[in-house]
């Protein structure tokens, strides 16, 4: 499977998740230093799904990327950094 196929598979999967499940998926990636093209497709699909749900993710990213430095939570459609 090429990266685009992985991306489409992940995007289809993420569409089926609840908001809380999607946030948990993101949080599982925090501080993970490994990198592969498959992981890139996975993270790109998360970003697209945040956009599709109209989440305000400006606290952790920009139009093209997300920071994986902190765990997050969703409050009224806005992604904020979770207090541990």
Commentary on this structure:
The longest helix has 16 residues, at 37-52. Strand 1 (72-75) and strand 2 form a beta hairpin. Helix 1 (3-15) runs parallel beside helix 3 (37-52). The model has no long low-confidence stretch (mean pLDDT 94). This protein has helices spanning 3-15, 19-27, 37-52; strands spanning 72-75, 78-81. The chain has one domain (3-81). It has a two-stranded antiparallel sheet. The chain is globular and about 35 Å long. It starts with a helix and ends with a strand. With 84 residues, it is mainly α.
Key phrases:
84 residues, mainly alpha, two-stranded antiparallel ribbon, 3 helices, 2 strands, globular
Q: In a nutshell, what does this entry contain?
A:
It is built from 3 helices and 2 strands, in the order αααββ.
Spell the H/E element sequence.
Answer: HHHEE
Cα distance spanning the termini: 37 Å
**Low-confidence runs of at least 5 consecutive residues:** none
The total of helices stands at 3
What overall geometry do the principal axes of the alpha carbons give?
Answer: globular
Task: Specify the structural class.
Answer: mainly alpha
User: What strand line-up does the widest sheet have?
Assistant: 1-2
Task: From the alpha carbons, calculate the radius of gyration and give it in angstroms.
Answer: 12 Å
Query: Can you count the beta strands?
Result: 2
Mean pLDDT: 94
Largest sheet: 2 strands, antiparallel
What percentage of amino acids are in beta strands? 5-15%
- Number of domains as seen in the coordinates: 1
Helix content: 40-55%
């Amino acid at each position: 499977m090429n990266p685009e196929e992985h991306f489409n598979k992940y995007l289809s999967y993420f569409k089926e998740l609840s908001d809380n499940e999607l946030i948990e998926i993101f949080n599982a990636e925090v501080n993970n230093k490994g990198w592969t093209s498959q992981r890139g497709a996975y993270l790109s699909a998360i970003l697209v799904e945040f956009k599709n749900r109209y989440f305000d993710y400006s606290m952790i990213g920009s139009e093209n990327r997300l920071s994986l430095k902190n765990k997050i939570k969703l409050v009224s459609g806005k992604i904020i950094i979770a207090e541990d």
